[in-house]
Amino acid sequence: MNLYSLNGRLYDSLVYLFTFGSEEPFMRSAIGKLQLKPGDCVLDWGCGTGISLRHIRHFISEGRIYAVDRSPKMAQYALGRSTPNERLDYHFIVREGVGLNLQERVNATIASYSLCVLPADLFEKAVREIWENTHSDGRLLMIETHMLPPTTRLGRLQQKLARFILGRFFDDGVSAELLPIVERYFERRSLDHDVATNARAFIGVRRGNALPSDLPAPCGAASPHPAGMSTL
Questions:
Q1: What is the residue extent of each domain of the chain?
Q2: Fewer Cβ atoms within 10 Å of its own Cβ: the N or the C terminal residue of the chain?
Q3: β partners of residue 141
Q4: Phi, psi (degrees; rounded to nearest 5) at 188
């Protein structure tokens, strides 16, 4: 099934069902750790149906939000969830996120279940685009599916069921290559795992210069993990 052909309401319902409603609290907590402040300029890279926009708005009362998604249907649904006013401005862009060309640099980027669904050969280009459009002290929040190895028999059964169900709806696109690439451009500040949502949240600060690709990956960056199901 093509996720981008789904009705926004159906898409959100599926996510809520398969994460037992725990995705939004995890996302809101992760966005809170970015320490956004009024007047910030924020990029929502792969805004989907606009759930992350709702949480971004909670932390900034004024500023500008750029929302990028490749799906016109998803972007239209996200547009309906936006609440612009004279102090908070929204810019919606329907295109692949590997060609941003924003009119200004942003203070923070949220990429929630989006970078990880790109083809592996586009990881570098997409991350570099975000890096180039970010202020020198800007931050990146990347949320992606990450299934930790289960420690109990019940956990193994639950994970097997999750893979069987989610695999019918979500692209199985998480790659162990992505995090090391991200950490060459953004220095890690935290990497939190959430068992309830089978997800992890990376927060990093923009490096002045990207690390060469032939350097060893930062500590913990290339730890192997089972592939998960992710969405843009």
A1: 3-206
A2: N
A3: 110, 203
A4: -60, 135
Count of residues making up the chain: 232
Amino acid present at 226: P
Count CB atoms within 10 A of the CB of residue 8: 20
Q: What is the pTM of this model?
A: 0.80
Within 10 A of 56 (CB to CB), how many other CB atoms are there? 26
Dist. CA 127–CA 116, nearest whole Å: 11
The first and second tokens of residue 88, run together, are: 């908070």
> What are the pLDDT digits (tens) for 95-152?
877 888 899 999 999 998 888 878 889 999 999 999 999 999 999 999 987 776 667 7
Over its C-alpha atoms, the chain yields an Rg (Å, rounded) of 17
**Separation of alpha carbons 105 and 153, rounded Å:** 48
Of the candidates 47, 80, 201, 114, the residue with the CA atom closest to the CA atom of residue 65: 47
Kindly state the tokens that stand for 76. Answer: 């239209």
The per-residue pLDDT for range 136-179, each reduced to its tens digit, is: 999 999 998 777 666 777 767 766 766 665 555 444 445 578 99
pLDDT at 198 over 70: yes
3-206 in CATH: which number?
Answer: 3.40.50.150
CA angle 128, 58, 7 (to 5 degrees): 70
Q: Cβ distance 46 to 71 under 8 Å?
A: no
Give 17's Cβ-side CA count (13 Å radius): 10
Closest CA to 228 of 142, 140, 139, 148: 148
Which among 25-34, 65-74, 181-190 has the top mean pLDDT? 181-190
d(CA 183, CA 60): 26
Question: Does the pLDDT value for residue 182 go beyond 60?
Answer: yes
